[in-house]
Amino acid sequence: MASYSSFGNSDSSSAVYKNLCLLSAVFAFSVGLTVGILIPLVYLNAPSTSSRNYTSSTPLSLPRLVPINSTNGNTNAMRYPTVSFVKGRAEAAAHSDLLDDGVYWGKKVELALPQGYQQHKHTAWQAYVKKAVAVKMEPGCGRMQNRLVTFEDGAKGCVRYRQNTDQIQGELFSFYLAKILQLPNLAPSAVSVVDLAQPLWKNLRSEIAAAQWNSNRPIVLTQYIPNLNAASIPEVFKPAERHLNKFDVVNASRSDDLVELAQWSDLIVFDYLTANLDRIVNNLYNYQWNSNIMDAPAHNLAKKSDDDLLVFLDNESGLLHGYRLLKKYEIYHSVLLENLCVFRRRTADAIRRLKGGGDVGTLLRAMFDSENGDGVKDILPTIPDKSVKILNDRINRVYDQIQKCQAMFSDDFL
Known about the structure:
Layout: H1 2-45, H2 49-52, E1 64-65, E2 78-79, H3 85-94, E3 99-100, E4 104-105, H4 107-112, H5 119-131, E5 134-139, E6 147-151, E7 156-161, H6 165-181, E8 189-193, H7 205-210, E9 218-223, E10 228-230, H8 246-251, H9 255-274, H10 280-286, E11 301-304, E12 310-312, H11 321-324, H12 326-337, H13 345-357, H14 360-371, H15 374-377, H16 385-409
Antiparallel strand pairs: 1-2, 3-4, 5-6, 6-7, 7-9, 8-9, 10-11, 11-12
Helix pairs in contact: 6-14, 9-12, 9-16, 13-16
């Protein structure tokens, strides 16, 4: 019995040992299998160094190329990943004096821009014309029936005379819109009426007869600007390029190029709003027959030789005549606007105010009423409601373009 008991305990211990070994092996296998599965899953789900660069706070720098569709003027951002967020931020900082937030002209460019014609100069000209006495009138200032007048004190002005009243309206209200936008590129202008009984005209009876002007007609009298040179179309707006964005600015090598491009950015916005077809749109339209026309000077645009101010001349097609021809020319207006992605912040802010207020018509009419007497208002109508509606639509379009450019090129999206 004792011998049996000793045998039975040994056999039982051996069985327990075998069971423990089996359980240990199963446990080890299970743990190994679990770890083997979890490690790849954890690795795959963990944010890598490159993926962390795509978070909202630190996005990756993505240079964008904007191909041009010359048929419809649409732009599409094509993204090509290159360097890290750190390099993108460094590049943005390096060019912060040229660009502000990747969409607006920077401080260095703004400070280099010519002052041009500010409000005080417009006010001074308005007061001068009301008391001026012309002593000489001769051919000049562009179109056939325009005339260059000389006043008693030797100052000079350009008189725009047209048979069609809407061209005088277009010139005047385009000028008013430029003042609302604070564009300094239009020479001071005022409206008068051809009336031989007025001091302004009383000495010019024979010259007016020779010019075949009719009495009681509205004219626009603009301050004469000497020393004007032709202005060429920048390469970035020619068909081979035809876009201006932050990368074009960074690649520009000369500061005077940037000063000119900053003024061109205002010109494109202004001409789009007014649908002016007598400037660069004229060149674009004729390009289909003459591929060299883009190398010719831009129509009705000049540069002052003393300070490089671009002067926006002859805006008579704006807001009325140009609007009637939108079906024919809108594609050319649009292709310029849709490929413009650098703006003067002051101009962009004005667009935002006009969009938010929806009151551009009220502002234009108030300016017309305050600056002109009954003699002018009796023969020159204010801006039509139809034109105001189209202008508001185009203000919205410019606003949308600015928003699109911010989404594409803002430093926050680097």
